[in-house]
Design a protein that fits this description.
The protein has 453 residues and is an alpha/beta fold. 37% of the residues lie in helices and 16% in strands. The protein has 13 helices and 14 strands. It has helices at 113-117, 134-146, 168-180, 195-207, 221-227, 265-282, 284-298, 302-322, 337-347, 354-371, 377-389, 402-409, 440-450; strands at 56-60, 90-94, 101-106, 124-130, 153-159, 188-193, 213-218, 232-237, 240-247, 253-256, 415-416, 419-420, 422-425, 431-435. A hairpin with a 2-residue loop joins strand 11 and strand 12 (419-420).
Length: 453
């Protein structure tokens, strides 16, 4: 179905005839997070938003965690605040039959070598990391892999840091090191870093010798709550984000929450965009908890952060267990990502962090949901409010145009038979749909409201 264009434009400011400006969202500026966009009433004329049947998956989130998720935890993290604990880890199981694996969550886990060693089956390990993380944690990981384990040899490859390096040229450095080190099919790759490292290391593991084991050790909030779980791996292409890759599950995910101590504030905020997402699409109670505790998360309260990571992993693990290859349900985890990926691609990889782009994309998806009459204005306001509390942008860069969004979104991975499917909110908080059945005018109006041209 082709897009149609129109001249309709709307501001989300509480003041009439006020356009959103991305100049208020300079990531380097202290003013980046201060503009408050309150929802305006939206009046659309001459459009019908009746539901159609094809290509639609509805998701409703009941209280608690359902389905096949197994939280066989030796430590139950509550929602209180306090000092870090280095007790036994919480374990969230990703249930994929004979490919199931644990997510270990806790403080000081890199000081517990048995957690890593029991998932290394051969004698050779390749640690893939970057120039930022290597000086901080590479030695600690090597020690954890080799302590009282002299039969294991560890090589490493240190890649440049940043989304702009998530490409084929950088990936080849991993293969070069693996081949030079004469690694065999019993080797294990270890991803030590954020989402870029995890995605590239996983794709390298999926491809090297047609598949070798790998382990995820995520060191950013973004990676800990989202990208390290579920087996999505890959690299970017100049024409689209994550267009080249594979579904390939790790042997385990080890989340040492102490690694967040060295995470820059901007990276911390970026990761919280994915935490907020889980509440919006399937876990209203979690969203309400975030609204009450966002100040603690921004202050890096260890128990609040551990709870947010655990609950996010539970949500992600349950969805992946039910829909590993993203045939429907798993796509709902991409709320805001179609708009967000367009920003990352159009504005330049690495100019905005992934979570910053997803935050703005979420605002745009929520705006469109409201225009369709699928949610009420209170949800629009709550989404804007919580993103601003998390110091995240709520409007795209001024250089993004309607045509840039449309051309990039046209090659999004969720396009099927030429139809752009989107994840949109529908109904009470915690409910969403993955659908291609929506009035195209609502999409046009949202893009026009957020873009200058």
């Amino acid at each position: 179905m082709a897009f149609t264009t129109n001249a309709f434009s709307l501001s989300l400011s509480s003041k009439p005839n006020t356009k959103l400006s991305s100049s208020d969202f300079n990531p380097i500026s202290s003013d980046f997070f201060r503009r408050v966009n309150k929802p305006a009433k939206v009046y659309l004329h001459g459009s019908s938003y009746g539901e159609l049947n094809p290509v639609r998956v509805a998701v409703s989130r009941a209280r608690g965690i359902r389905g096949r998720i197994c939280a066989n935890s030796t430590q139950v993290m509550d929602q209180s605040v306090g000092k870090k604990s280095s007790r036994a880890p919480t374990i969230v199981e990703v249930d994929l039959g004979n490919r199931s694996y644990p997510i270990y969550i806790g403080s000081g886990l890199l000081d517990q070598p048995e957690l890593l060693q029991k998932h290394v089956h051969g004698k050779k390990v390749l640690v893939v990391t970057n120039t930022t993380i290597a000086p901080l944690y590479l030695d600690k990981v090597v020690d954890a892999l080799t302590k009282a384990n002299p039969n294991v040899s560890v090589e490493n490859v240190i890649l440049p840091d940043g989304e702009k390096y998530k490409n084929m040229d950088t990936l080849m450095k991993v293969f070069d090191k693996a081949i030079e080190s004469r690694l065999d099919r019993r080797c294990t790759f270890v991803a030590l870093g954020g989402g870029v490292i995890g995605d590239m290391c996983g794709f390298a593991a999926a491809s090297f010798l047609r598949g070798v084991n790998f382990i995820q050790i995520p060191t950013t909030v973004m990676a800990q709550v989202d990208s390290s779980v579920g087996g999505k791996t890959g690299i970017n292409h100049p024409l689209g984000k994550n267009m080249i890759g594979a579904f390939y599950q790790p042997q385990c995910v080890l989340i040492d929450t102490d690694t967040l101590d060295t995470l820059p504030d901007r990276e911390l905020a970026s990761g919280l965009a994915e935490v907020i997402k889980y509440g919006l699409i399937r876990d209203a109670e979690f969203f309400e908890w975030q609204e009450k505790n966002m100040d603690k998360l921004m202050a890096r309260d260890p128990n609040a952060m551990a709870y947010a990571i655990k609950r996010s992993c539970e949500n992600k693990a349950e969805v992946v267990s039910l829909d590993e290859k993203e045939s429907g349900l798993r796509a709902t985890l991409n709320l805001g990502h179609t708009f967000g990926h367009a920003i990352e691609t159009g504005f330049g990889y690495g100019q905005w962090l992934h979570g910053e782009a997803v935050a703005t994309g979420t605002v745009m998806a929520v705006d469109m949901s409201y225009r369709l009459g699928w949610i009420d204005s209170s949800i629009v306001k709550r989404v804007n409010d919580i993103l601003l509390l998390a110091k995240l942008p709520t409007a795209p860069p001024e250089t993004m145009t309607v045509e840039m969004f449309k051309s990039i979104m046209a090659v999004d991975k969720k396009v099927a038979d030429g139809l752009l499917r989107l994840i949109l909110l529908k109904g009470p908080l915690g409910n969403c749909v993955f659908t291609g059945d929506y009035d195209r005018k609502a999409l046009d109006d949202t893009l026009s409201a957020f873009c200058k041209s």
